[in-house]
Structures are given as structure tokens and as C-alpha cells.
Amino acid sequence: MRSIFTTVLLIASALPAADLPPPPGMLSIPGGSYKPLYARETKARSVDSFFIDVTQVTNAQFLDFVTKHPEWRRSQVKTALADKNYLSHWAGDLDLGDDKLREAPVVHVSWFAAKAYCASKGKRLPTQDEWEFVARADATRPDASGDQVFLRQLLEWYSKPATSALENVHSAAKNIHGLRGLHGLVWEWVHDFNSTMVVGDSRGDGSLERQLFCGAGSLLAADVSNYAAFMRYAFRSSLKGDYCVGSLGFRGAKSVKEAPPAPSTPQFTTIYDLPGEWRTQDDQPFKLDQLRGKPRIITMGFTSCKFACPRIIDDMKRIERKLGADADKVGLVFFSFDTAADNPAQMKKAAGEQKLELGRWTFAISDDETIRQLAVALQFKFATVEGFLTHSNLIAVLDTDGNIVHREETLGADIGPTVEAVLRQLKP
What we know:
single chain, paralog of FGE (formylglycine-generating enzyme), Glutaredoxin, 2 domains, seven-stranded mixed beta sheet, three-stranded antiparallel beta sheet, about 25% helix
């Protein structure tokens, strides 16, 4: 798959351009607003001015990175951070094998690896909104998303199979912004890739994300002729953070407004190795490492959810009851991703409404970046769609060190396998 499909309907609404010159190798993109793919009635989304790399990161650049950061070499990277295909097109840890690869986009890199590279350069991955905002452009117009010729060209790129002979990034097609290769070379990682969902969100069969991919439901989309965009959303929805794909690369971005440096990607084996501070329903700080020592049953969601989350909590309560006296030997944790509404007081109120035993249950909230890293590690998706928080469904059983030993992603499923997974962890 050689192309990235980036045709969203946008509303031209220019914001003041950045006054600061872009860093070397990057371009300055004035902000604006755009209307996402998924519905005609949705409000336009604003995008602040930002900097973005002119080209995708090359094999030569990534080779320099792994030379300086040996923990990201193919033979040393942790399995939680990249699957077995990581840098599989290279001849060795520090050997590209073919000199023609040097200026081709690096592929077979996971989200974790791409994020680590960007952080080492004082950058970050672009958000989905930023990437979509610039990718609407063709060579002469900032918004070509309504041009059927442009859309057909995207589909022609899509029809070409991926090959190992990727082009030099500097010779890739350039759009009006001066960005090269947004279409026609490889797909690209974005920071919040796990905000794209096709199925399994909290609103069930009637969800907007489901309707993106069925014939009648596609009438909700901003432009039903924009099939290339549907394919792009499907691809992002299929990704997991450790995936290393031969048609997937990345480029860096940077905020124009002063922002804290992007945190480096942690080296972790289990989720308990992840950094960041969380706060409980009692407003007590803790780190994930402090959860070691007993099996845990965990989920992610938000306390004001009226759809999936109450059913997930009910499933966890059924598991708790089935465990009987053994329930005192495990912990149950609800990690919230709703940083706007969920605070210790709200979480404590929600626990009380659910009549939960707080000696066993913990509700937790953190900052956006810490939550995002945990969600990617758990292969959990969440997003805001038309003002609604939406998410995938998950009940996971962790061993005493934080390894996932069982996961259930179906609401109202038979709790037997989950109970058995917990009991296996309690055996001496």
C-alpha cells in the first residue's frame, strides 16, 4: 500500500500565521479549521499553527538515531515496544544493507519507536487533526478535497501494491505548502492514531464510527464520494502501537506555541513500567509501579458514560462476586481518560453511586500524555466524536507484575474465562 489517503472536507478559516521561522527541515503551517469526515452536522475543528517536517524521516536519519540510542536497535528493542517486523528491511542493527535505502522513508517502525525518535529531536508526532489539515492540499490549492480528479488520483495510488523499492523522500510529490510525500509514498503514524475506531466504541451498533463503513451509514459522512478517506480511517483503526508495517513511516511536528518538551518514550516490559503520576478517588498520588504485588482486573473509561462503562463496571462486579472470598486478594482499577470532567471528587461520587467496595476498587486519573501511553500499551482506543466521548471496550486481567494474561472486549460476555484467569494467578 503506497499511499496515504488524506481527503477531508475542510472549511477555510485561516488563523494568523506563525511569526517564528520554522526549525531546519520543517515548514510553518498557519492554523485554521476543518470539518472532519464523519458527519455533516459536526462543528469545525480548529487547528493551531504548527511546524511539520518537509519529508518523512529517512532510513539514514533513523540509523543515526539507533546508533546514538542502542536501546532502539533491532536486537535490543523490547517486545512490548515493537513487533518482530521492527526494521526487518535492514541487514542488521546498524547496517541498511542497500545504500539506496538511505534517503527512502524508514518503515517497519512502531508508534513507540517513531515517538522516541521525534522526542530525541525535540519534536513530536503530528496529531491527526494537523496531519489531515495539511494533507487536503494538492500542488496548487490548500484544499483540493472536493476535486474528483484529486480523489481519483488518491485511489490510483491506493491500488498500487507496496514494494521494497521506496522512492527518495526528496523526490516525492510536493503540495502547495511545500510538504513532500503526504500522498503516494507510505502511510504515516500520528500521535493520536488510537482515536480512530471502526467498531467497538461505547455507543454500539449506532455509532458514527460504525456508520463510516456501512453503505447506508456513510450518508452521515461529510462527502460520500470521498472513499479514499474511508480507507484511511480503516487503516488507522487497524493499528496497534507495536505494529511495524512495511508501508508505514512517519514525520515530526512541533507546536508553534511554547509547550513542554515531548516526553521520551519509556522503555517498558509491562504497563507497570510506564512513567507518570496518577491520582485516586481519594486524591492520593500513585505510580503504576505501586500496583505490583497482586493480580488486578482493570478497565478504561469515563465516569459520566451512560452506555458501555456502566455495563463494564457491572461485568467487573459480577466477576468480583464470583470470586467470593478470593476477591480480597485482587484489585479492581478503573482508569479514566476524561481529563475535563473526572477529578477525585467526581470519581469518588461515581464509585459511591455504583456501591463499590473501595477497599478493592481504585479509580484513577492522570494527564493526557500519561493516559495516552497507557491506552496505547493496553491497545485501548478513545476519542471525542461530535462532542461525545467514545471508546473501545476492555476488561483486562494483569498478573502481579502487570503482564496482561487475559482480555475481554465484548460487553456482557461470559465472565467464566475472566474468573478462571484471575484464579490461575492466585494459585501458589
